[in-house]
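Box 3.1 A note on notation
Throughout this textbook, protein chains are presented in two layers. The first layer is the amino acid sequence; the second is a token string describing backbone geometry. Keep the layers aligned when reading.
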Amino acid sequence: MPSLHVNGSHEANEHTSLLARPFHNQNGDPLYQDDRAWVRWPANVAHITWEVLKSNYVNVFLIFVPLGIISGAAGWSPTAVFILNFLAIIPLASLLSFATEELSVKLGQTLGGLLNATFGNAVELIVSIVALREGQIRVVQSSMLGSILSNILLVLGCCFLAGGIRYPMQEFNETVASTMSSLMAVASASLIIPATLYAVMSRNDTGQGDKDKNIEVLSHGTAIILLILYVMYLVFQLKTHAKLFEEEGGGSKNPSNGDAEQGGEGSDQQQQSPPEPEEPQILTPWAAAVALVVITVAVAVCAEYLVDSIDSIVVTAHISKTFIGLILLPIVGNAAEHVTAVVVALKDKMDLAIGVAIGSSMQIALLVTPFLVILGWIIGQPMTLHFETFETVVFFLSVLVVNYLIQDGKSNYLEGAMLLGTYAIIALSFYVYPDEPSS
């Protein structure tokens, strides 16, 4: 039996595991705890890297990151470049979410949640900036709309369905949820108005140049107003009505009425709350910040090759740009958020799940999309809020359905099935949707 060292560690001897010996010094201590700095530092980096990699099974797909970059640099077939970089962005999005959560622990729940939502949309923002720079306006518009739809229908639907199967009825803070959904309704109005104006000008035989100029002026003004609304929402959330949002964390830990009658479920929930403080021990704030920079650069490189291959994949695979931007890219960019939201819903933390799903889509609608419109204005790309009429109607109806389902502050698996069914119908409709629809 190995002898016990003074500090509680085991000395290595002939009975010590062969696999364990290379990672321990002669005293039996792990190399990342060695007294020698030249041994401790590289071993500590290797140890932290391993802990991060094994934190999520999705990280197995990291093998596609170098393959995707090599395929793009070496000029492989567009199909191979698209698929490899598509798969590469999935684990990068997961790591981006993980590093953000590690960094946000020190900032408190509200600021941490805001940081999570911001970097949670970093993948979509990077892909959209690359596409905007190359003039892929349709890809940018459909990617933004697709991100919103996947969050409020796919993610929220999975949360309601997964949580509803485990719990008969789940409750959440309907005041916070209704505030977010009301802002989403304002965002949908900002898309309906340009589409309606364009239709009116077309009926009045307005010249194409005048129509485009008027839509650009309306889009630029609307984008600025939406950004102002988002800033006011931040003040509302972080300062003037911070208590309202702090109740999100407290309310999510209490079992719903259905759970109160089932002591086993309530006690199970209490057992799951203690491990949470242990999470920040993996990455220090500085390590998390460095990881965010490295991952963001990797996402930007993969996104560059991914966007470059879209035109060719449209021709070879006979898939429209709208379907790629609206369905495929959001699934990649929101992969980490999907998993996070479903996990917290299974723990009956529906306030947090609502915040991830609706909060993230609201940020895309009120911050990311207006920012891209302003950025297009700056770099000379005609990025506007004029989406096709069909897309605008789909967005409005989706927001309407979500508002109806969350207004009572309760959820169940049937409501989740409704949201998922709506998303499936929309995905099918955009699969057969032409890339250049007539006005």
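The first helix runs from residue 37 to 53. Confidence is low (pLDDT under 50) at residues 1-21, 248-280.
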